[in-house]
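hi! just following up on the protien thing from before. the input was this:
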Amino acid sequence: LINHWNPNIAAVEKFFFYKSSRTISVVQARGVIMMLLASKNIKVSEYSPAQIKLTVAGTGKASKNEVLDAVMYNLNLNKPPKPDDAADALAIALTKLNEEGFN
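and the predicted 3d structure came back as:
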């Protein structure tokens, strides 16, 4: 995807430790993503979950459904994006766009 779209910026969610069986695999995947972006000299911004929620939904304590509703509203979507994690990725992208300005 990076080679196809040739982005010059990227955004990722900051990782906070969770007690979960998926923690190690999430950290490993994030590390690979960060390494690949660095190898392509792509500037990466990192945002905390609360920062993303605040930017997209107006409160840092927004629920997943509130974030989903805000993403759908901001992108004029009639149906929720699939898979479920796509809404989170779109929320991160909207946070980056908000930081950069919508030029």
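The two ends are 23 Å apart (CA to CA).
Helices lie at 2-5, 23-39, 49-57, 64-74, 85-100.
cheers
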